[in-house]
Design goal:
Oligomer: homotetramer
Strand content of chain A: 5-15%
Radius of gyration of chain A: 18 Å
CATH architecture of the largest domain in chain A: 3-Layer(aba) Sandwich
Largest interface: A-B, 35 and 35 residues
Shape of chain A: globular
Largest sheet of chain A: 5 strands, antiparallel
Chain lengths: 310, 310, 310, 310
């Protein structure tokens, strides 16, 4: 595609930025931990980074926020680098059909979580990282620094502590999986690493850049580093589409049509293979746990640009 | 794309045809109704039809077979033509996370099926068709004739009767939904139409042609007829990806990466937006209910040609 | 026990009659079928029949009402006469832990209902009667006439028709069990018999007399007819205690401590082995589906008389 | 009843002892913790203590064993002494319909266990004891010493440690309930007390004596101490009948007809109101987790003596 035919993503982002204004104030900021509840509502930012490095952005796209469950995508990639397809003996690849923090399926399926994007699955992924790295939280922070090219990324200790204090349900899952032999490291160690992963702070621009390797056949477009092979990049993208947005993944695929992963901090990363990495952030959530304005913005983006998988 | 750059799909199909030979004999032909159990195993055919009308095929691609649940895709399209997004008040768009014939979720979700590709959802879709057409089975047969351009397509009365005799589970679902007010026509009428839809006989070539409108922005490439608008074609395709292959949809998206719909007759339709409609058929199934050799063939096809969504 | 030491049940019943007055008007008459919804609220009657034939009663104890699920006890007894312990291959003896009309357990337990007092179990019992009797509804009516000594007992055709018209959920269960091979007769035949069983009309006095055989070692105290052997009478009584009052059986045993079976018509039969048969009726129900004033009356009765199992 | 008419329980016990011999070797000793797996199989003992203090026994009735879940009955009694009916705001009184260690119902019922005899319910009960006693394990040991009149009773530290090491599932439940606010003390503290309760060692004679207060209107027959009021004794007995023998409570009530509580150590306590306390022990279990020979022995006992509730 010649530079002149490059879609005018900046103009589209500005249009969307204007359109979503009336939605701000209509969702709920996540309140299950005190630190997240403090985030001011009515913020919105979006970034689209094309594979040639152009950054398109609007609003609060340079405001750092807590990536929360978006970390599950990076943790999965790192664990998949370690184990390859052997990872799938411990976690499935199917949509769960139930809430992201449900224990019901773990019971009927012998402690093997449905996919790596529900909490139970991410705990298994974290357990893999705990077995491979002395400091699994440092390993993940370093990994997202490399992916995004931003060496300043850190996790927020106050958020991590806040999560740790209310992680009873995640501890329940971890012990339950330990009961089935599907957790190898001490529960508290896995929980501590998991809470720190969730507490990483990044901007929409950081995240749009960090996810771009999936749109680029598994190669980091900024450094040239191969992260995963091309086939694996496709497969991780398929997982994002079927399982990446809590139990609204079917609806999200229907409306947006891009591989995506969301977090309760209000961020959603997405990408279009061969074209761009993207991230939208707006901290107010809809009932499904996905960003209200963020979901709408991505739906508008694919409609306005015609850029979707289907 | 110029004619000379057209991928040599025929060569790829022949290669796949050779590769799958050792898999024939390793699956199980569907046996839940006597008529299906009579189908000779060890058959395999595949067809890929590009949007310019070229037909690539191998093996038993011109052998008619019982389309079974593939009919759910055409019934959904027809019902969606009737109701548009109002259809989604009666059936969801999420993967079910449970078996295609489970009643559990119907109970906890008040008689609203998760998606139109599980049996309960297809019964609601059929109920919509029963309300709109005097002869819903004739309407669907005529619809697939138009989509594929083959006026000879019929349903197989013996298969339909055989299904009707063993449809207790579908009747249970239908009565259960009626109990929640989500079935408007008499149960036996809906069941009769549903069984006839499943009993339609088509070849892999017919089906590859019939599905092509979804790859062509909602317009039938053979007749120019608009079936659904471009946005709806994308959305139906997204549904196929997340829900089209029973409870193995996540795995199928991971391995194949194309929107697809399978049936227990051993057929699987798929398409690549902007490129082709496809159908593979091999009557022996794997445990998930999808064609064993068929799933493998589609996985090989996207790997060999690089043609997948992601 | 000498006549002079016979507890003064009549006095106790009068006391309870007075005590429950403030509760009348606080429950809900069953409204799922129009015919039942017509029953005037604020009625209450209770009868206790000692094994020597003395009838103690108060209030509306001679007012006929729709016995509804109390029929499940008599149908079970009749089916058990036919099959003995072979009946338990088709239906279990465990509390269900879920609602009386749930299909969930049927799915995970292959169409075998948990016990004969939930709807699914009663449909299997009715299926047994359909296999043994040309007119299963006549057979049951005749059986309760013999048990109670009242040849006037009939079923109410208007109630039976009303139930038949809204029996979608029971039809769903019946087809579901047929799917698993646990229903032998045509679904509509079983449903018709079941609805007529539920529509039998009896008074509290009739029912107190009809249940007395269980308190009398399996022998009808009025006719001397052996209904079941002594051991079976104990076992049917145990089933009543653990499963007889919907999913409040644990609470009911805790509060009342007598074997009992309730119906949504507002009746509850109970008995004390070696002492009496009893029935209370008040059409307003609590959330569990048991009679509000009736449950309270039985609790007061066992407290005041000291007559309970434990 | 005059002394001369006292049933000859000793003779009955000897008969049963002979009858069960062929069953020894046909069940499985609990193996989920190493310490329990070491118990020699093929042991059997039974004790019946009448309220006048006569002890009837056979076989290994004086062999101490790990009481395991039988401790739930004593812990419940102690917690009920503390809280009375307020206890039922935190735990229900209904049969669970699912396995004793299931987390499914906790999820749908917001962390409130179905009854105090499943593990989750017993953890809540233990949490109550942790709030009331500095040393809840000492408190329970002292309580059973008083109930049985045997000051030598201890818990087995090796068993308690062994349980603690494999208590992942119980920890999962405890964290899950903490997540719903239904656990007040630190999870590890509750788990430690719970494991020690399970590890109490008593003989069948000790246990038959310890349970006798329930048969005696809530008063310890050996010391005259009132443990609970008469009404509460009846109610706790009702709970034993409906919930005391894992998910086989319905079957157990049907076959045996006595209030009972079993443990995976192979013990089962039971009692007959007004007559006796009883305990049988045989370490080999049937699939339900109840002692194989023990269940059979109690069934034979009620059949041979005619002593059952019904």
């Amino acid at each position: 595609m010649s530079p002149t035919s490059q879609p005018d993503y900046s103009h589209t982002l500005n249009q969307i930025h204007a359109e979503v204004q009336p939605m701000l104030g209509q969702g709920q900021v996540a309140s299950y931990i005190p630190e997240l509840a403090k985030v001011p509502p009515r913020q919105f930012g979006m970034a689209v980074v094309t594979l040639d490095g152009q950054v398109h952005q609007c609003g609060d796209a340079q405001q750092p926020f807590s990536i929360q469950s978006i970390s599950k995508l990076f943790a999965l990639t790192l664990a998949y680098q370690c184990l390859g397809d052997a990872l799938w003996t411990r976690v499935g690849r199917e949509p769960s059909g139930t809430a992201f923090n449900s224990l019901v399926q773990l019971e009927s399926e012998q402690g093997r979580p449905r996919n790596p994007f529900i909490n139970a699955g991410a705990l298994v992924v974290t357990d893999v990282l705990c077995s491979r790295f002395v400091n699994p939280e440092t390993a993940l922070v370093e990994f997202v620094r490399r992916l995004s090219g931003n060496p300043q990324i850190q996790y927020d200790m106050a958020v991590a502590q806040s999560e740790l204090g209310t992680a009873h349900r995640n501890r329940a899952m971890a012990h339950f999986m330990a009961n089935f032999g599907n957790l190898r490291n001490p529960v508290e160690e896995v929980i501590a690493a998991y809470c720190r992963h969730c507490a990483i702070r990044m901007t929409a621009v950081d995240l749009a850049r960090a996810v771009a390797f999936l749109a680029h056949g598994g190669v980091n477009p900024w450094s040239g580093e191969r992260i995963v092979d091309a086939s694996s990049a496709k497969r991780l993208s398929a997982l994002m589409l079927t399982c990446g947005t809590y139990d609204a993944a079917g609806d999200f695929a229907y409306r947006v049509g891009l591989p995506a992963k969301s977090g309760v901090g209000g961020g959603i990363v997405a990408h279009m293979p061969g074209h761009f990495g993207a991230c939208v952030w707006s901290p107010e959530l809809e009932a499904s746990g996905n960003s209200l304005a963020g979901s709408h913005a991505l739906e508008r983006f694919t409609t306005l640009t015609g850029q979707s998988l289907f």
